[in-house]
Recover the amino acids of this structure.
């Protein structure tokens, strides 16, 4: 058993076609995150990921396992540690306008408390990273003694970027943002995601209903006792849910508090990957890279109309060339019958012609059959198109399908 | 009947000249939920250390190498319909294949139950 030649937790994952490894240069030192000991107490199997020891799954004795955690998140609420991700705070006078020079989303019109998905684009139109941008400008309460009315404070933008890319992102931002913009890497904060149809029920019970008015892609500062939290209604599973930024020193207490609720169980990176795949959400370094552009990646929704027309952002011209002429290849979903999964790197054929490549693939626990996403030539991207995917010299029949594979259940309000 | 274990986490039951091969409970625990097992067909000649089978878990595909050389005489068809048998009964119902033993000396140096247990404890 090749991969078994050293079955020592992490090395188990160093098997072919595995997406749960970051594809950047592995740092010399694997670091521990604030919740490291907490995970180990919960029976997690820890693996190196994005330079950190991260929980891939929890022990079967405590109800863990990738499929069990996946199903728990689809039916209840899973608690994921995503503290490897980069949390950045940008402040300064013209920070929104400056940020717009580096990404194609509308940031100047993003209202305080609102969140937007966006992309850092390089000069060739390739994707440097995908990220969430929150207008974190604080509301300053009226002060009768000082005679001031309530007003918005100095502009601030909270960014969450991929763990494996955060150092490159920070360097890119520092290089291209003017000195007037201050970038703070919030590396003293943990980030946890509570995801699932019962996430809101559980969190509202814990937080005494203070977050019940939030809708998808909104973010608030919430002081829970002595814990200053930032709670954002968003996630990476396709389910309703929240991401909670918490100072590292309170992270364990917060996770214990959340896991005390009957709906909440800890879930690992393994389930996070199968959940996001079912939700059709791209994984940076696999489904999107500097070799892919936002249009080919089917992320056109991140290109705001005004920004497309006005330009003024890095890579605009290159991206608009693809936008106007249409991409040669596009990211689509594929579904398979049977049980054999096609994984990253598998070639897609129409008869003898190679027409694409799988970028993420696996077995869908919710659907009971394999699913994948990949880039196919434009002649083959219509839903329903039948293609073949090569796995170990076998041709698996597959069908092009729209994503998500499993419908999103975001809480968008009335 | 003698049971042997490899450092690659396979078990081999030897009964006369026939060996039954599977992966250990430790191995299935490391792999996690198994969704597909690709087994060699009867008549396939296996060479020690070369590809014999592939186990697909939710997270990854893993090769299973032949622990000894010989000819496959039977693959466990129950795994086609229920690959999760490898998780629920790895060392009994979830066996992979049966094979002839070309060279019994290849079994020398493999671990017994007790040695394998202490091997796993060290991992």
């Amino acid at each position: 058993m090749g991969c078994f030649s050293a079955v020592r937790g992490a090395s188990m994952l160093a098997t072919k076609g595995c997406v749960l490894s970051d594809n950047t240069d592995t740092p010399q030192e694997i670091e521990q995150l604030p919740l490291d000991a907490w995970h180990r107490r919960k029976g997690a199997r820890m693996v190196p990921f994005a330079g950190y020891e991260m929980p891939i799954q929890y022990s079967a004795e405590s109800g863990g396992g990738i499929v069990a955690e996946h199903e728990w998140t689809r039916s209840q609420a899973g608690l994921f540690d995503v503290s490897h991700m980069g949390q950045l705070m940008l402040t300064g006078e013209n920070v929104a306008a400056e940020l717009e020079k580096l990404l194609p989303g509308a940031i100047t019109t993003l209202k305080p408390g609102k969140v937007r998905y966006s992309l850092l684009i390089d000069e060739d139109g390739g994707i440097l990273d995908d990220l969430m941008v929150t207008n974190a400008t604080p509301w300053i309460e009226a002060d009768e003694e000082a005679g001031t009315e309530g007003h918005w404070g100095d502009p601030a933008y909270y960014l969450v970027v991929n763990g494996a890319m955060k150092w490159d992102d920070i360097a890119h931002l520092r290089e291209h943002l003017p000195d007037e913009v201050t970038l703070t890497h919030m590396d003293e904060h943990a980030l946890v995601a509570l995801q699932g149809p019962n996430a809101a029920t559980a969190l509202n019970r814990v937080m005494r209903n203070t977050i019940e008015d939030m809708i998808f892609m909104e973010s608030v500062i919430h002081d829970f006792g002595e814990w200053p939290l930032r709670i954002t209604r968003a996630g990476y599973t396709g389910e309703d849910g929240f991401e909670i930024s918490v100072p590292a020193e309170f992270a364990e207490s917060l996770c214990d508090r959340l896991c005390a609720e009957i709906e909440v169980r800890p879930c690992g990176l393994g389930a996070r990957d199968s959940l996001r795949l079912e939700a059709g959400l791209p994984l940076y370094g696999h489904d999107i890279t500097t070799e892919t552009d936002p249009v080919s990646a089917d992320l056109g929704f991140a290109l705001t109309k005004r920004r497309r027309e006005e330009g003024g952002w890095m890579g605009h011209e290159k991206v608009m060339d693809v936008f106007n002429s249409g991409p040669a290849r596009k990211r689509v979903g594929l579904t398979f019958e049977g049980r054999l999964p096609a994984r990253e790197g598998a070639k897609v054929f129409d008869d003898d012609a190679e027409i694409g490549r799988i970028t993420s693939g696996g077995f869908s626990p919710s659907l009971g059959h394999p699913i994948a996403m990949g880039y196919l030539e434009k002649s083959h991207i219509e839903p329903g198109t039948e293609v073949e995917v090569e796995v170990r010299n076998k041709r698996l029949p597959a069908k092009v399908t729209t994503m998500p594979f499993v419908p999103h259940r975001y809480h968008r309000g009335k | 009947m003698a049971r042997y274990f490899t450092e690659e986490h396979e078990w081999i039951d030897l009964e006369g000249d026939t060996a039954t091969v599977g992966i250990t409970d430790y191995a299935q625990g490391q792999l996690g939920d198994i969704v597909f097992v690709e087994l060699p067909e009867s008549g396939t000649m296996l060479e020690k250390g070369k590809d014999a089978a592939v186990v697909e878990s939710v997270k990854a595909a893993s090769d299973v190498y032949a622990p000894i050389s010989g000819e496959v005489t039977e693959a466990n068809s129950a795994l086609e319909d229920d690959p999760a048998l490898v998780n629920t009964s790895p060392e009994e119902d979830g066996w992979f294949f049966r094979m002839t033993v070309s060279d019994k000396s290849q079994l020398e140096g493999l671990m017994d139950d007790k040695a394998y247990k202490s091997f796993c404890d060290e991992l």
Observations:
- The mean pLDDT of chain B is 94.
- The first helix of chain B runs from residue 25 to 31.
- Chain B touches chain A at residues 6-10, 23, 26-27, 29-33, 35-36, 38, 54, 56-65, 83, 123 (CB under 8 Å).
